[in-house]
Specification:
133 residues, alpha/beta, 26% helix
């Protein structure tokens, strides 16, 4: 089984409540209909069981997401360590990350769908604090 792999496109924050902002990353799911459908499932069924794990390889931090309920799915998103380190620290502090899933062919025509997942902040902090070697 191949794991859908995405590169973080745009990062930022989304207003989700009065003065409540959630770290957000945009990923292009054009070639991954199973990941694209997760936002719909999330809206209808709720997020269910999710686990995350982060690893660092050289100048990249890869965040893996695995869902087991209500559907089984797995995907990974790569972030550039130096460019996104502060953002990823914010994600670890918030303990959550909002994925804005979009299709590059229709992104200018419609709003992205959202998938919010809890992030293992302790694990992400440990990954970010690895000594450069």
């Amino acid at each position: 089984m191949s794991v859908p792999f995405f590169v973080a496109q745009e990062i930022g924050r989304t207003l989700i409540g009065e003065n409540e902002w959630m770290p957000t990353v945009t990923i292009d799911v054009s070639d991954s209909p199973e990941v694209a459908d997760l936002a719909r499932v999330h809206a209808v069924e709720g997020i269910g069981d999710v686990s995350t794990h982060a690893i660092r390889r050289d100048d990249m931090v890869v965040v893996g997401v695995q869902l087991t309920k209500p559907v089984e799915a797995i995907f990974a998103v790569a972030f550039h360590y130096e460019l996104h380190r502060e953002f990823l620290q914010e994600v670890a502090d918030a303990g959550t990350l909002l994925f804005a899933t979009t299709n590059t062919e229709t992104a200018h025509e419609e709003h992205p769908l959202w998938l919010s997942v809890d992030i293992d902040g302790s694990s992400l902090r440990r990954t970010l604090n690895l000594d450069d070697k």
